[in-house]
Amino acid sequence: MATWHVGSSVLHKVVEMEFPVTVTGALRSSDTGLLGRYPWLAPHFAEPDGSFTMAIQTILVDTGTHRILVDTCIGNDRVTLPQLPPLQTAWLETLKGLGYPAETIDAVVCTHLHFDHVGWNTHLVDGAWVPTFPNARYVIPRAEWEFWSNAVDTDSVGRADLDNTLRPVFEAGLVDLVGPDHEVADGVRLEAAPGHTPGQVAVVVESAGERAVVTGDLVHHPVQFVAPEVPSAADEDVAGAIATRRAFVDRYADSGTLVVGTHFPSPTAGWLTRADGDVKFVVERP
């Protein structure tokens, strides 16, 4: 668990699972020595053997007036990847233990619609998938929904089963299809981050002159800030994703913005800096 304060807003990390991955498995690269060329990645984001830890987690944003979940992980009881058996985790109980029972959540933001970002949108009750957060508005980028709901390629990496993760919340009348600059609540807005998927967004939190941004999957690992040309394995539009990463670094490097990596393991958040033209992701405030 981790907590960050951004002005009067509070961000909490709610982890579903963590697991080791190889660079060649998680990123579209055959360079097994990639991480070793950037010593600042160790010890948090690189292991001696060149692998790293991938986290599946939610970022909860509490502004004091609104409780907002950014992405909802994989969820229990779901068939997703062939190598991943259906999960049975205490994610929902962990959320409640932090003081956020499901019925108190005001909004659920889906940065994009891959299976590991929408799973707890619904849960099984008496054999039926029902909305997990009955009082929340589910905020979904319109371009993202239009792409996946019309996609015919069922083998797309990361594709979610919309019938059990999204359609029940549509049927309950809980969905807001929005543009990429939508304001979720006072001080919480979306920011376009296409490429990984067509309608992906990041989430920007601003309060009392401070700012944080939750990345979504515009990066899966901090090395992609310094090497934006390295795609993630599931990037739909490689060129678009590269452009988004470069623009993100240009926008936030040396800006004092806390960058919260959706898939980054502990310490998860840090700052982008430039020194002599080199980009770094540092976990101690510069």
From TrEMBL:
CDD domains: metallo-hydrolase-like_MBL-fold. Residues 55-263 form the Metallo-beta-lactamase domain. It comes from the Bacteria. The keyword Zinc applies. The keyword Manganese does not apply. Keywords: Hydrolase, Metal-binding, Zinc. InterPro entries: MBL_superfamily_lactonases, Metallo-B-lactamas, RibonucZ/Hydroxyglut_hydro. PANTHER family: QUORUM-QUENCHING LACTONASE YTNP-RELATED, QUORUM-QUENCHING LACTONASE YTNP-RELATED-RELATED. Belongs to the metallo-beta-lactamase superfamily. This is MBL fold metallo-hydrolase. It comes from Streptodolium elevatio. The lineage of its organism: Bacteria, Bacillati, Actinomycetota, Actinomycetes, Kitasatosporales.
